[in-house]
Amino acid sequence: MNINKIMVIGAGQMGAGIAQVCAVSGYDVLLYDANEEALDRGIKGIEKRLARDVTKGKISEDDKHASVLRIKKTASIDEAADCDLVIEAVVENMDVKTKIFSQLDQITPEQTILATNTSSLPITEIAAATKRPDKVIGMHFMNPVPVMKLVEVIRGLATSDEVFETIKQTAESLNKTAVEVNDFPGFVSNRVLMPMINEAIYTVYEGVAEPEAVDEVMKLGMNHPMGPLTLADFIGLDTCLYIMETLHEGFGDDKYRPCPLLRKYVKAGWLGKKAGRGFYSYTE
Ligand code: NAI
């Protein structure tokens, strides 16, 4: 299976990063978002990060220019029709994702691989919204995409070996390391990470310590490069809540119960860094 042209759906923090690494690695990229402002913001972010890479001597001005030219933005999902691979990175919500996959199933040729960057939702259920579950797969990048080496590649129940191999090779062509996991809520990454973040939020909720203290303990005591609450702000508190809900529902165990303080922050619109406010404030 040859991958030349990739559509990335969702130009938020993950989608824009995915589009960037695909373009830098030589793929033709179509970036689509339902929200035009988000699309423009995504493209601007890519240009800014690439300009920074030029300043740091990581890439040449010519490479930057060529990469930017390889990314086209589009306001229509129908343009997926001539793509070999679609990587979906919209909000972590099953209804939104299944609707998109069912649309993509109609729009794209039967050989097109449909991948999702979901952090936790069952690949098998997303695949069931299509008539090609063998060509649906999880391709879970880490944040920030241009920096982090891992791509968790998740097989749904029906994902074919050929599709798995193609996606593994594609991830490697992006200079990432692909790790294969099976389809269980939260996969490996967020099944291990998110309960820790949730527990850190509980310690704030129960008055055990202030956010700064919680983060200091985990940084200096456990050698984590970033404290769990800073990381939660960075991931997005809405995304953290969606993931905890998926774990709670998927395993039916109260150890995954989202902390009420996390729910409260999300309801308040304190979604973390992207909203300017989460456990910390990001307004200049
Ligand atoms: P985000 O909130 O930054 O971006 C989501 C984008 O999707 C927005 O620009 C929004 O306009 C767009 N969108 C929403 N509904 C749409 C639709 N129906 N059609 C087209 N575009 C639509 O979210 P983020 O953080 O980029 O997350 C996206 C996905 O990546 C989620 O599934 C999340 O779980 C996953 N993910 C997130 C990570 C993180 O650290 N934030 C890490 C790894 C995966």
TrEMBL record:
Indicate the enzyme's highest-level EC class.
Answer: oxidoreductase
3-hydroxyacyl-CoA dehydrogenase C-terminal domain sequence ranges: 186-282
The terms under GO molecular function for this entry are:
3-hydroxybutyryl-CoA dehydrogenase activity
The record places domain 3-hydroxyacyl-CoA dehydrogenase NAD binding at 5-183
Q: Which UniProt keywords apply?
A: Oxidoreductase
Pathway the protein contributes to: Lipid metabolism; butanoate metabolism
The record's annotation in Pfam families points to: 3HCDH (PF00725), 3HCDH_N (PF02737)
Keyword ATP-binding: yes or no?
Answer: no
What does the record give as EC number?
1.1.1.157
What does the sequence similarity comment in the record state about its family?
A: Belongs to the 3-hydroxyacyl-CoA dehydrogenase family.
Annotated protein name in UniProt: 3-hydroxybutyryl-CoA dehydrogenase
Which organism does this sequence originate in? Scopulibacillus cellulosilyticus
Identify the taxonomic lineage of the organism of origin: Bacteria, Bacillati, Bacillota, Bacilli, Bacillales
